[in-house]
Specification:
By secondary structure, the protein is α/β, with parallel strands linked by helices. Helix content is 38%, strand content 19%. The protein has eleven helices and 14 strands. Helix 1 crosses helix 2 and helix 6 crosses helix 7. The relative contact order is 0.09.
Length: 330
């Protein structure tokens, strides 16, 4: 089906436009929200990307993604499978969050941290709502932005879902969106070829002002971003989750018990820590597995970003696979 779709798209395009291999979410959640592991999700996307790449698409376009954990894995799988441009698009609700709670700045910072050069959003809302949630993002994100809005918000009319924003109204909202140095703009639900033609006629070839790289440290959990350095202030790092300093942690880790670790995590967050350091290095414990287990427990327990603390590269790598944020590494 994928191969035939690409063949037909190329036949229709006749070399006039790029063909994007469009990939949506699996519909299932990764651990700990669901049962799918990092490796299983990675292999699912690797297979799909390879099929599209071998069929000859020009772009890999992840769209309508609602979980940063899944999109992050999908992007990593694409990077390891092909050398095509990769677009990473999330869908946000009217509160400016994904289904699993990520805000645009945190999600984009996480994706930029793994090397994604095209970040954006599609579906879920109209261009005016997308314009509003883009505020405060551009000064921290240097990747190219990809915006594909619906033709307004969906309404039910005579039992059918309709979108009532005209192409002329869409154009005016798009003009405002371009103030945020958007590089690629298109349309999602409710838009038609006429909408896209109007965008092309008005904006194709428009120069996009290049964003200067941000300064300082920007760390994100899946739901919160913190800033440090370069006049951003001092980052307070909670250091209590360290078996070399706390005997009770050593004893509990050897007993495969994380109750005190979780208690310390919540207490340090409540006390005002910006970042939480996590260390599992102690004799008698498999550090690689234990660090991964702690990260899995804490990612949904605390909102602040984590600092992955180890002298073992394999332990850091395994923990980062599990952590759907942009961590500090110690």
């Amino acid at each position: 089906l994928n191969e035939k779709a690409v063949e037909l798209a190329k036949e229709a395009a006749q070399g006039r436009v790029y063909i994007a291999g469009d990939i949506g979410p699996t519909g299932v959640f990764m651990e700990p929200l669901g049962k799918i592991t990092f490796e299983e999700m990675y292999n699912i996307y690797k297979e799909q990307v390879k099929i599209l790449f071998d069929a000859g698409v020009d772009i890999i376009n992840f769209e309508t993604m609602v979980d940063i954990s899944e999109l992050r894995v999908a992007v990593l799988a694409a990077f390891d499978t092909c050398d095509l441009p990769v677009f990473a698009n999330l869908t946000f609700d009217l509160n400016g969050r994904t289904l699993t709670g990520s805000d645009p700045l945190s999600a984009f910072n996480i994706l930029e941290g793994i090397g994604c050069k095209y970040l954006g959003m599609n579906c879920g809302m109209g261009p005016s709502e997308m314009y509003n949630i883009l505020k405060g993002i551009r000064e921290h994100i240097t990747a190219k932005l990809v915006i594909q809005a619906n033709a307004g918000l969906p309404k039910l009319k005579d039992g059918k879902t309709v979108y009532d924003l005209s192409k002329e109204e869409y154009l005016e909202y798009a003009r405002k969106i371009l103030e945020y140095e958007v590089s690629i703009i298109g349309g999602c639900c409710g838009t038609t070829p006429d909408f896209i033609k109007l965008l092309v006629d008005n904006f194709k070839g428009t120069d996009v002002k290049k964003q200067k790289p941000g300064t300082g440290i920007v760390l994100s959990s899946s739901t919160k971003t913190v800033f440090g350095g370069a006049n951003k202030g001092f980052l307070k790092i909670g250091e209590k989750i360290n078996p070399s300093a706390v005997k009770k942690i050593r004893e509990e880790l050897r007993a495969d018990d994380l109750s005190y670790v979780k208690e310390l995590a919540k207490r340090q967050e409540a006390a005002g820590s910006d970042v939480l350091d996590v260390n599992a290095g102690t004799p008698g414990v498999n550090e690689t597995e234990m660090l991964k287990k702690i990260v899995t427990e804490l990612e949904n327990l605390v909102k602040i970003p984590l600092c992955i603390d180890s002298s073992r590269p394999e332990a850091i790598e395994n923990a980062l696979k599990k952590y759907p944020g942009r961590a500090l590494i110690n």
